[in-house]
Protein backbone atom coordinates (compact mmCIF):
# COMPACT_ATOMS: atom_id res chain seq x y z
CA UNK A 1 0.00 0.00 0.00
CA UNK A 2 1.38 3.38 -1.02
CA UNK A 3 1.95 5.69 1.91
CA UNK A 4 0.05 8.96 1.71
CA UNK A 5 2.30 11.97 1.13
CA UNK A 6 2.60 14.34 4.09
CA UNK A 7 0.92 17.71 3.57
CA UNK A 8 3.70 20.24 4.20
CA UNK A 9 1.23 23.00 5.13
CA UNK A 10 -1.44 21.16 7.14
CA UNK A 11 1.04 18.87 8.93
CA UNK A 12 3.74 21.49 9.55
CA UNK A 13 5.41 21.77 12.94
CA UNK A 14 4.63 24.82 15.05
CA UNK A 15 7.36 27.29 14.03
CA UNK A 16 8.69 30.68 15.06
CA UNK A 17 6.63 32.16 12.20
CA UNK A 18 3.45 30.62 13.61
CA UNK A 19 4.31 31.97 17.05
CA UNK A 20 4.84 35.51 15.77
CA UNK A 21 1.71 35.46 13.64
CA UNK A 22 -0.35 34.22 16.61
CA UNK A 23 1.00 37.02 18.83
CA UNK A 24 0.45 39.72 16.20
CA UNK A 25 -3.04 38.46 15.38
CA UNK A 26 -3.90 38.47 19.07
CA UNK A 27 -3.33 42.22 19.15
CA UNK A 28 -6.87 43.00 18.01
CA UNK A 29 -8.55 40.89 20.72
CA UNK A 30 -6.15 42.33 23.33
CA UNK A 31 -7.18 45.86 22.38
CA UNK A 32 -10.82 44.79 22.21
CA UNK A 33 -10.66 43.58 25.81
CA UNK A 34 -8.72 46.65 26.87
CA UNK A 35 -10.99 49.20 25.20
CA UNK A 36 -14.26 47.56 26.25
CA UNK A 37 -13.09 47.15 29.87
CA UNK A 38 -11.26 50.42 30.54
CA UNK A 39 -14.53 52.27 29.98
CA UNK A 40 -16.00 50.46 33.02
CA UNK A 41 -13.52 52.23 35.33
CA UNK A 42 -13.59 55.49 33.36
CA UNK A 43 -17.39 55.72 33.61
CA UNK A 44 -17.13 56.13 37.39
CA UNK A 45 -15.62 59.57 36.68
CA UNK A 46 -17.20 60.34 33.30
CA UNK A 47 -20.80 59.91 34.48
CA UNK A 48 -20.78 62.78 37.02
CA UNK A 49 -18.41 65.02 35.04
CA UNK A 50 -20.33 64.83 31.75
CA UNK A 51 -23.70 64.57 33.54
CA UNK A 52 -24.61 61.28 31.86
CA UNK A 53 -27.99 59.82 32.73
CA UNK A 54 -28.73 56.07 32.57
CA UNK A 55 -29.51 56.30 28.84
CA UNK A 56 -26.23 57.99 27.92
CA UNK A 57 -24.25 55.76 30.27
CA UNK A 58 -25.68 52.74 28.48
CA UNK A 59 -25.03 54.26 25.05
CA UNK A 60 -21.40 55.00 25.88
CA UNK A 61 -21.06 51.44 27.22
CA UNK A 62 -22.37 49.90 23.98
CA UNK A 63 -20.87 52.38 21.50
CA UNK A 64 -17.79 50.25 20.78
CA UNK A 65 -19.99 47.16 20.45
CA UNK A 66 -22.15 48.92 17.86
CA UNK A 67 -18.94 49.87 16.06
CA UNK A 68 -17.79 46.24 16.10
CA UNK A 69 -21.11 45.30 14.53
CA UNK A 70 -20.48 47.81 11.70
CA UNK A 71 -16.83 46.83 11.37
CA UNK A 72 -17.77 43.20 10.95
CA UNK A 73 -19.17 43.97 7.51
CA UNK A 74 -15.63 44.89 6.43
CA UNK A 75 -14.85 41.18 6.41
CA UNK A 76 -16.17 41.30 2.86
CA UNK A 77 -13.48 43.87 2.03
CA UNK A 78 -10.68 41.68 3.37
CA UNK A 79 -11.94 38.81 1.17
CA UNK A 80 -11.83 41.15 -1.82
CA UNK A 81 -8.58 43.10 -1.33
CA UNK A 82 -6.58 40.74 0.87
CA UNK A 83 -5.67 40.12 4.51
CA UNK A 84 -2.21 41.70 4.69
CA UNK A 85 -3.14 45.23 3.51
CA UNK A 86 -6.06 45.59 5.92
CA UNK A 87 -3.97 44.01 8.69
CA UNK A 88 -2.23 47.36 9.32
CA UNK A 89 -4.69 49.99 8.08
CA UNK A 90 -7.36 49.22 10.69
CA UNK A 91 -4.94 49.75 13.59
CA UNK A 92 -3.92 53.19 12.29
CA UNK A 93 -7.58 54.22 12.57
CA UNK A 94 -7.67 52.78 16.09
CA UNK A 95 -4.64 54.83 17.17
CA UNK A 96 -6.18 58.10 15.97
CA UNK A 97 -9.52 57.39 17.64
CA UNK A 98 -7.83 56.38 20.91
CA UNK A 99 -5.98 59.67 21.13
CA UNK A 100 -9.08 61.72 20.26
CA UNK A 101 -10.84 60.39 23.37
CA UNK A 102 -8.55 62.56 25.48
CA UNK A 103 -10.18 65.73 24.14
CA UNK A 104 -13.91 64.93 24.27
CA UNK A 105 -16.28 67.26 26.16
CA UNK A 106 -19.72 65.69 25.76
CA UNK A 107 -21.38 62.31 25.92
CA UNK A 108 -22.24 62.25 22.24
CA UNK A 109 -18.60 62.99 21.30
CA UNK A 110 -17.45 60.06 23.41
CA UNK A 111 -20.14 57.86 21.85
CA UNK A 112 -19.04 58.83 18.31
CA UNK A 113 -15.33 58.26 18.89
CA UNK A 114 -15.84 54.93 20.61
CA UNK A 115 -18.09 53.94 17.71
CA UNK A 116 -15.08 54.48 15.42
CA UNK A 117 -12.90 52.44 17.79
CA UNK A 118 -15.38 49.61 17.57
CA UNK A 119 -15.41 49.73 13.76
CA UNK A 120 -11.64 49.33 13.76
CA UNK A 121 -11.78 46.39 16.18
CA UNK A 122 -14.64 44.74 14.30
CA UNK A 123 -12.69 45.00 11.05
CA UNK A 124 -9.65 43.35 12.62
CA UNK A 125 -11.53 40.19 13.64
CA UNK A 126 -11.99 38.81 10.10
CA UNK A 127 -8.66 40.21 8.91
CA UNK A 128 -6.40 38.76 11.60
CA UNK A 129 -8.25 35.50 12.27
CA UNK A 130 -8.58 34.63 8.57
CA UNK A 131 -4.86 35.21 8.06
CA UNK A 132 -4.04 33.14 11.12
CA UNK A 133 -6.36 30.26 10.18
CA UNK A 134 -4.97 30.08 6.65
CA UNK A 135 -1.41 29.65 7.94
CA UNK A 136 -2.30 27.28 10.82
CA UNK A 137 -1.43 23.55 10.72
CA UNK A 138 -4.49 21.42 11.48
CA UNK A 139 -3.13 20.09 14.80
CA UNK A 140 -2.44 23.60 16.06
CA UNK A 141 -5.34 25.54 14.51
CA UNK A 142 -7.59 25.25 17.54
CA UNK A 143 -4.91 26.42 19.95
CA UNK A 144 -3.63 29.22 17.70
CA UNK A 145 -7.07 30.73 17.21
CA UNK A 146 -8.01 30.03 20.82
CA UNK A 147 -5.03 32.00 22.09
CA UNK A 148 -6.47 35.12 20.46
CA UNK A 149 -9.39 34.90 22.91
CA UNK A 150 -6.98 34.56 25.82
CA UNK A 151 -5.50 37.83 24.58
CA UNK A 152 -8.94 39.40 24.95
CA UNK A 153 -9.03 38.60 28.65
CA UNK A 154 -5.41 39.63 29.11
CA UNK A 155 -6.37 43.02 27.66
CA UNK A 156 -9.45 43.19 29.86
CA UNK A 157 -7.49 42.34 33.00
CA UNK A 158 -4.76 44.85 32.21
CA UNK A 159 -7.40 47.52 31.58
CA UNK A 160 -9.07 47.03 34.96
CA UNK A 161 -5.75 47.18 36.80
CA UNK A 162 -4.50 50.20 34.83
CA UNK A 163 -7.82 51.97 35.28
CA UNK A 164 -7.90 51.36 39.04
CA UNK A 165 -4.32 52.65 39.38
CA UNK A 166 -5.00 55.70 37.21
CA UNK A 167 -7.95 56.77 39.36
CA UNK A 168 -5.41 58.27 41.74
CA UNK A 169 -4.26 60.77 39.09
CA UNK A 170 -7.30 62.92 39.75
CA UNK A 171 -10.79 63.73 38.46
CA UNK A 172 -9.52 63.90 34.85
CA UNK A 173 -7.84 60.49 35.02
CA UNK A 174 -10.47 59.03 32.71
CA UNK A 175 -8.99 60.95 29.76
CA UNK A 176 -5.63 59.25 30.24
CA UNK A 177 -7.33 55.88 30.70
CA UNK A 178 -9.18 56.06 27.39
CA UNK A 179 -6.23 57.45 25.42
CA UNK A 180 -3.87 54.79 26.79
CA UNK A 181 -5.09 52.20 24.24
CA UNK A 182 -3.01 54.06 21.62
CA UNK A 183 0.21 52.75 23.20
CA UNK A 184 -0.27 49.00 22.51
CA UNK A 185 -1.87 49.87 19.15
CA UNK A 186 1.27 51.69 17.99
CA UNK A 187 3.46 48.77 19.08
CA UNK A 188 1.28 46.30 17.18
CA UNK A 189 1.28 48.34 13.97
CA UNK A 190 5.08 48.27 13.98
CA UNK A 191 5.18 44.52 14.70
CA UNK A 192 2.68 43.65 11.96
CA UNK A 193 4.68 45.33 9.20
CA UNK A 194 6.13 42.77 6.79
CA UNK A 195 3.57 40.04 7.50
CA UNK A 196 3.09 38.00 4.28
CA UNK A 197 -0.21 37.69 2.46
CA UNK A 198 -2.18 34.46 2.80
CA UNK A 199 -1.12 32.04 0.02
CA UNK A 200 -4.64 30.56 0.02
CA UNK A 201 -6.13 33.99 -0.70
CA UNK A 202 -3.49 34.69 -3.37
CA UNK A 203 -4.21 31.37 -5.05
CA UNK A 204 -7.95 31.96 -4.89
CA UNK A 205 -7.35 35.27 -6.70
CA UNK A 206 -5.23 33.59 -9.39
CA UNK A 207 -1.92 35.05 -8.16
CA UNK A 208 -0.17 31.70 -8.42
CA UNK A 209 3.48 32.80 -8.46
CA UNK A 210 3.03 34.98 -5.38
CA UNK A 211 1.24 32.18 -3.53
CA UNK A 212 4.03 29.71 -4.25
CA UNK A 213 6.67 32.24 -3.18
CA UNK A 214 4.98 32.78 0.20
CA UNK A 215 4.57 29.03 0.73
CA UNK A 216 8.28 28.40 0.20
CA UNK A 217 9.25 31.35 2.41
CA UNK A 218 7.13 30.11 5.31
CA UNK A 219 7.26 26.30 4.95
CA UNK A 220 10.53 25.74 3.10
CA UNK A 221 11.54 24.70 -0.45
CA UNK A 222 9.57 21.44 -0.29
CA UNK A 223 6.24 23.30 -0.03
CA UNK A 224 4.22 23.63 -3.21
CA UNK A 225 0.76 24.56 -4.43
CA UNK A 226 -0.17 20.87 -4.20
CA UNK A 227 -0.31 21.38 -0.42
CA UNK A 228 -3.31 23.71 -0.69
CA UNK A 229 -6.32 22.70 -2.77
CA UNK A 230 -7.09 24.96 -5.71
CA UNK A 231 -10.71 26.17 -5.48
CA UNK A 232 -13.04 25.80 -8.43
CA UNK A 233 -12.95 29.27 -9.99
CA UNK A 234 -16.58 28.95 -11.06
CA UNK A 235 -17.62 28.78 -7.40
CA UNK A 236 -15.00 30.96 -5.72
CA UNK A 237 -16.52 34.43 -5.90
CA UNK A 238 -16.76 36.47 -2.71
CA UNK A 239 -20.44 36.94 -1.91
CA UNK A 240 -22.59 37.51 1.16
CA UNK A 241 -25.19 35.21 -0.39
CA UNK A 242 -22.91 32.17 -0.05
CA UNK A 243 -23.25 32.36 3.74
CA UNK A 244 -27.00 31.88 3.36
CA UNK A 245 -26.87 29.26 0.62
CA UNK A 246 -28.16 25.74 1.16
CA UNK A 247 -24.74 24.39 2.12
CA UNK A 248 -23.75 27.09 4.59
CA UNK A 249 -26.93 28.55 6.13
CA UNK A 250 -26.91 26.05 9.00
CA UNK A 251 -23.29 26.94 9.75
CA UNK A 252 -23.99 30.68 9.66
CA UNK A 253 -26.88 30.28 12.09
CA UNK A 254 -24.86 28.01 14.38
CA UNK A 255 -21.87 30.32 14.71
CA UNK A 256 -23.85 33.56 14.88
CA UNK A 257 -26.35 32.32 17.46
CA UNK A 258 -23.96 30.51 19.82
CA UNK A 259 -21.61 33.50 19.60
CA UNK A 260 -24.50 35.85 20.48
CA UNK A 261 -25.63 33.71 23.42
CA UNK A 262 -22.08 33.58 24.78
CA UNK A 263 -21.24 37.29 24.63
CA UNK A 264 -24.58 38.88 25.57
CA UNK A 265 -24.24 38.30 29.34
CA UNK A 266 -20.44 38.22 29.29
CA UNK A 267 -19.91 41.66 27.73
CA UNK A 268 -22.49 43.16 30.08
CA UNK A 269 -20.56 41.78 33.05
CA UNK A 270 -17.22 43.10 31.78
CA UNK A 271 -18.52 46.55 30.80
CA UNK A 272 -20.42 47.11 34.05
CA UNK A 273 -18.29 44.92 36.30
CA UNK A 274 -17.91 47.49 39.09
CA UNK A 275 -21.67 48.13 39.25
CA UNK A 276 -22.37 44.37 39.24
CA UNK A 277 -19.92 43.69 42.07
CA UNK A 278 -21.37 46.56 44.08
CA UNK A 279 -24.80 44.94 43.73
CA UNK A 280 -23.34 41.78 45.25
CA UNK A 281 -21.56 43.86 47.95
CA UNK A 282 -18.17 42.63 46.77
CA UNK A 283 -14.87 44.58 46.56
CA UNK A 284 -16.35 47.78 47.95
CA UNK A 285 -14.11 50.69 46.92
CA UNK A 286 -11.89 48.48 44.74
CA UNK A 287 -14.33 47.15 42.16
CA UNK A 288 -11.71 47.60 39.44
CA UNK A 289 -9.53 44.96 41.06
CA UNK A 290 -12.57 42.74 41.57
CA UNK A 291 -13.41 43.04 37.88
CA UNK A 292 -9.80 42.16 37.06
CA UNK A 293 -10.13 38.97 39.11
CA UNK A 294 -13.30 38.01 37.21
CA UNK A 295 -11.51 38.68 33.92
CA UNK A 296 -8.63 36.44 35.06
CA UNK A 297 -11.16 33.67 35.73
CA UNK A 298 -12.44 34.01 32.16
CA UNK A 299 -8.83 33.83 30.96
CA UNK A 300 -8.13 30.72 33.05
CA UNK A 301 -11.25 29.07 31.63
CA UNK A 302 -9.80 29.35 28.13
CA UNK A 303 -6.67 27.36 28.98
CA UNK A 304 -8.21 23.87 29.38
CA UNK A 305 -10.41 24.58 26.35
CA UNK A 306 -7.26 24.99 24.22
CA UNK A 307 -6.41 21.33 24.91
CA UNK A 308 -9.95 19.94 24.96
CA UNK A 309 -10.83 21.43 21.57
CA UNK A 310 -8.80 18.64 19.93
CA UNK A 311 -8.92 15.89 22.56
CA UNK A 312 -12.62 16.12 23.42
CA UNK A 313 -13.73 17.52 20.06
CA UNK A 314 -15.37 20.75 18.94
CA UNK A 315 -18.99 19.66 19.36
CA UNK A 316 -18.80 17.90 22.77
CA UNK A 317 -16.71 20.70 24.25
CA UNK A 318 -19.03 23.56 23.31
CA UNK A 319 -22.15 21.67 24.45
CA UNK A 320 -20.57 20.85 27.82
CA UNK A 321 -19.38 24.44 28.16
CA UNK A 322 -22.80 26.02 27.61
CA UNK A 323 -24.32 23.59 30.13
CA UNK A 324 -21.77 24.64 32.75
CA UNK A 325 -22.20 28.35 31.99
CA UNK A 326 -25.96 28.03 32.43
CA UNK A 327 -25.52 26.47 35.87
CA UNK A 328 -23.05 29.18 36.95
CA UNK A 329 -25.15 32.19 35.96
CA UNK A 330 -28.27 30.48 37.30
CA UNK A 331 -26.65 30.38 40.75
CA UNK A 332 -25.99 34.13 40.52
CA UNK A 333 -29.63 34.74 39.70
CA UNK A 334 -31.17 32.45 42.32
CA UNK A 335 -28.92 33.60 45.19
CA UNK A 336 -28.42 37.38 44.72
CA UNK A 337 -28.09 37.91 48.49
CA UNK A 338 -25.70 35.10 49.20
CA UNK A 339 -24.33 33.23 50.90
CA UNK A 340 -20.99 34.53 49.68
CA UNK A 341 -19.71 31.06 48.84
CA UNK A 342 -22.58 30.45 46.41
CA UNK A 343 -22.01 33.81 44.70
CA UNK A 344 -18.31 33.11 44.27
CA UNK A 345 -19.06 29.59 43.04
CA UNK A 346 -21.46 31.01 40.45
CA UNK A 347 -18.82 33.42 39.13
CA UNK A 348 -16.15 30.71 39.05
CA UNK A 349 -18.31 28.10 37.29
CA UNK A 350 -19.61 30.57 34.70
CA UNK A 351 -16.15 31.97 33.99
CA UNK A 352 -14.36 28.62 33.75
CA UNK A 353 -16.93 26.97 31.47
CA UNK A 354 -17.02 30.06 29.21
CA UNK A 355 -13.63 28.97 27.88
CA UNK A 356 -15.22 26.56 25.40
CA UNK A 357 -17.37 29.11 23.52
CA UNK A 358 -14.53 31.64 23.79
CA UNK A 359 -12.11 29.35 21.97
CA UNK A 360 -14.74 28.46 19.36
CA UNK A 361 -15.90 32.03 18.60
CA UNK A 362 -13.20 32.58 15.98
CA UNK A 363 -12.15 29.00 15.37
CA UNK A 364 -15.61 27.94 14.17
CA UNK A 365 -16.23 30.55 11.42
CA UNK A 366 -12.67 30.27 10.14
CA UNK A 367 -12.92 26.48 9.89
CA UNK A 368 -16.47 26.20 8.59
CA UNK A 369 -16.26 28.54 5.58
CA UNK A 370 -13.98 28.53 2.49
CA UNK A 371 -11.28 31.04 1.59
CA UNK A 372 -13.38 33.26 -0.68
CA UNK A 373 -15.87 34.02 2.13
CA UNK A 374 -13.86 33.26 5.26
CA UNK A 375 -13.37 36.90 6.25
CA UNK A 376 -16.97 37.66 5.31
CA UNK A 377 -18.18 34.80 7.51
CA UNK A 378 -16.17 35.97 10.52
CA UNK A 379 -17.52 39.48 10.01
CA UNK A 380 -21.16 38.50 9.57
CA UNK A 381 -21.23 36.06 12.49
CA UNK A 382 -19.55 38.73 14.62
CA UNK A 383 -22.32 41.14 13.56
CA UNK A 384 -24.99 38.63 14.58
CA UNK A 385 -23.32 38.15 17.96
CA UNK A 386 -23.19 41.88 18.59
CA UNK A 387 -26.98 42.14 18.49
CA UNK A 388 -26.94 40.23 21.75
CA UNK A 389 -23.91 42.05 23.11
CA UNK A 390 -25.38 45.50 22.41
CA UNK A 391 -28.79 44.74 23.90
CA UNK A 392 -27.29 42.89 26.86
CA UNK A 393 -24.82 45.65 27.68
CA UNK A 394 -27.31 48.47 27.13
CA UNK A 395 -30.06 46.82 29.21
CA UNK A 396 -27.80 45.56 32.01
CA UNK A 397 -27.65 48.84 34.01
CA UNK A 398 -31.36 49.36 33.33
CA UNK A 399 -32.11 45.88 34.66
CA UNK A 400 -30.00 46.47 37.77
CA UNK A 401 -31.81 49.71 38.47
CA UNK A 402 -35.35 48.46 37.88
CA UNK A 403 -35.31 44.78 38.83
CA UNK A 404 -32.13 44.13 40.79
CA UNK A 405 -29.21 41.80 40.22
CA UNK A 406 -31.11 38.50 40.72
CA UNK A 407 -33.74 38.81 37.95
CA UNK A 408 -31.14 40.40 35.65
CA UNK A 409 -28.89 37.36 36.01
CA UNK A 410 -31.81 34.99 35.45
CA UNK A 411 -32.37 36.63 32.06
CA UNK A 412 -28.68 35.98 31.33
CA UNK A 413 -29.18 32.32 32.33
CA UNK A 414 -32.07 32.02 29.86
CA UNK A 415 -29.89 33.44 27.07
CA UNK A 416 -27.08 31.02 27.89
CA UNK A 417 -29.49 28.08 27.95
CA UNK A 418 -30.64 29.16 24.48
CA UNK A 419 -27.02 28.86 23.36
CA UNK A 420 -26.95 25.32 24.70
CA UNK A 421 -30.00 24.39 22.60
CA UNK A 422 -28.40 25.94 19.49
CA UNK A 423 -25.22 23.90 19.96
CA UNK A 424 -27.09 20.63 20.52
CA UNK A 425 -29.13 21.21 17.36
CA UNK A 426 -26.54 22.68 14.99
CA UNK A 427 -22.92 22.16 16.11
CA UNK A 428 -20.86 20.15 13.55
CA UNK A 429 -17.69 18.18 14.29
CA UNK A 430 -14.51 19.23 12.44
CA UNK A 431 -11.77 18.06 14.80
CA UNK A 432 -8.52 17.02 13.06
CA UNK A 433 -9.81 17.88 9.58
CA UNK A 434 -7.73 19.91 7.17
CA UNK A 435 -8.95 23.43 6.52
CA UNK A 436 -10.07 22.30 3.08
CA UNK A 437 -12.25 19.46 4.40
CA UNK A 438 -13.61 21.39 7.38
CA UNK A 439 -14.67 24.37 5.26
CA UNK A 440 -16.42 22.34 2.58
CA UNK A 441 -20.05 21.85 3.60
CA UNK A 442 -20.49 18.99 1.12
CA UNK A 443 -17.71 16.80 2.57
CA UNK A 444 -17.57 18.00 6.17
CA UNK A 445 -19.62 15.06 7.36
CA UNK A 446 -17.11 12.55 5.97
CA UNK A 447 -13.76 11.50 7.37
CA UNK A 448 -11.18 14.03 8.45
CA UNK A 449 -9.13 13.41 5.32
CA UNK A 450 -9.51 15.42 2.12
CA UNK A 451 -11.19 13.49 -0.67
CA UNK A 452 -8.10 13.58 -2.83
CA UNK A 453 -5.68 16.12 -4.17
CA UNK A 454 -5.94 19.61 -5.54
CA UNK A 455 -7.68 18.25 -8.62
CA UNK A 456 -10.90 17.76 -6.66
CA UNK A 457 -13.33 20.66 -6.56
CA UNK A 458 -12.91 21.45 -2.91
CA UNK A 459 -12.71 24.92 -1.43
CA UNK A 460 -9.62 25.86 0.46
UniProtKB/TrEMBL annotation:
It is a multi-pass membrane protein. Residues 441-450 have a biased composition (Polar residues). Residues 21-431 form the Major facilitator superfamily (MFS) profile domain. Keywords: Membrane, Transmembrane, Transmembrane helix, Transport. One of its GO terms (cellular component) is plasma membrane. This is Sugar porter family MFS transporter. Residues 441-460 are annotated as: Disordered. It comes from Alicyclobacillus acidoterrestris (strain ATCC 49025 / DSM 3922 / CIP 106132 / NCIMB 13137 / GD3B). Belongs to the major facilitator superfamily. Sugar transporter (TC 2.A.1.1) family. GO terms for molecular function: carbohydrate:proton symporter activity. InterPro entries: MFS_dom (IPR020846), MFS_sugar_transport-like (IPR005828), MFS_Sugar_Transporters (IPR050360), MFS_trans_sf (IPR036259), Sugar_transporter_CS (IPR005829). The chain crosses the membrane at residues 21-44, 56-78, 85-104, 110-133, 145-167, 173-191, 252-272, 292-310, 317-335, 341-364, 376-396, 408-427. It is found in: Cell membrane. It comes from the Bacteria.
